[in-house]
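Lecture notes, continued. The same structure-token format from the folding unit now serves as the input rather than the output. Read the line below as a description of shape only.
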């Protein structure tokens, strides 16, 4: 047998390291190819189909707990309603009922001294509003309810919605109110603009044709059923059929200038409904 002398130990170490190296290469080769990292805005949420709008996808992903645990968000105003109590004798209470456009409206600034109650919840659609209609409207015993809803349905905040379904929900809320002696003001949807970078998504999610179609239905429904129609749209729209740029910074939600135009229109409609 050949004798390698003092070189045998280093040679054995060499063969051992070579074997380890081969095993590592083999293990790496068997790993699946690494996928490129996606931006947080475009990573799809398991179980939630994409809408094609990163902002809307993110919103819906953040609302999973709401959609599954408290779809109508009854918890939002439950304590405030209990503290409010019944209207005082002779009080002409009015509930402003809607989504974020109502939610952000500081009613006390535009209707000082009036018993006007804000029951708007940002992001809501008409099926969510219908769920909480008894708690946040009927049980408060107002003389009038002013309903502004539908823009988030068109956007698909809680899933795809046909205009027929939005109309049915608005009709259901109206019928429930009238059954309980509450006069109804149905407001048109507001126009939306795309003049600023942050407005582009809101605008793209809300096709002008659908807004016009739904507004025409609301107007016709009010005429047929002796309900007051509140036309915000005509007062806020520009020559291009969009929200006037200086009335909404994000294209959708009125700013102070926008609400300043809306307030007297709402007041007139409420007074008409009271009669």
């Amino acid at each position: 047998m050949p004798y390698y002398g003092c070189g045998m130990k280093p040679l054995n170490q060499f063969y051992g390291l070579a074997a380890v190296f081969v095993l590592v290469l083999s293990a790496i080769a068997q790993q699946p190819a690494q996928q490129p990292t996606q931006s947080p805005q475009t990573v799809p949420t398991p179980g939630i189909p994409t809408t094609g709008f990163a902002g809307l996808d993110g919103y819906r992903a953040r609302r999973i707990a709401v959609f599954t645990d408290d779809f109508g968000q009854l918890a939002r105003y439950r304590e405030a309603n209990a503290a409010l109590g019944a209207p005082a004798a002779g009080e002409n209470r009015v509930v402003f009922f809607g989504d974020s456009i109502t939610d952000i409206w500081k009613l006390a600034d535009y209707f000082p001294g009036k018993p006007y109650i804000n029951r708007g919840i940002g992001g809501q659609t008409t099926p969510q509003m219908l769920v909480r209609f008894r708690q946040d409207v009927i049980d408060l015993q107002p003389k009038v309810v002013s309903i502004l809803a539908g823009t988030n349905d068109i956007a698909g905040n809680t899933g795809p919605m046909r205009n027929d379904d939005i109309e049915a929900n608005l009709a259901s809320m109206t019928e429930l109110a009238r059954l309980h002696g509450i006069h109804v003001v149905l407001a048109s949807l507001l126009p939306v603009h795309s003049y600023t970078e942050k407005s582009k998504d809101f605008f793209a999610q809300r096709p002008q044709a659908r807004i016009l179609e739904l507004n025409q239905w609301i107007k016709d429904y009010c005429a047929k059923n002796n309900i007051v129609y509140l036309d915000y749209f005509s007062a806020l729209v520009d020559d291009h059929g969009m929200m006037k740029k200086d009335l909404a910074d994000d294209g959708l939600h009125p700013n102070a200038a926008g609400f300043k135009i809306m307030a007297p229109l709402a007041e007139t409609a409420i007074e008409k409904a009271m009669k």
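Point for the exam: Residues 86 and 140 are 6 Å apart (CA to CA).
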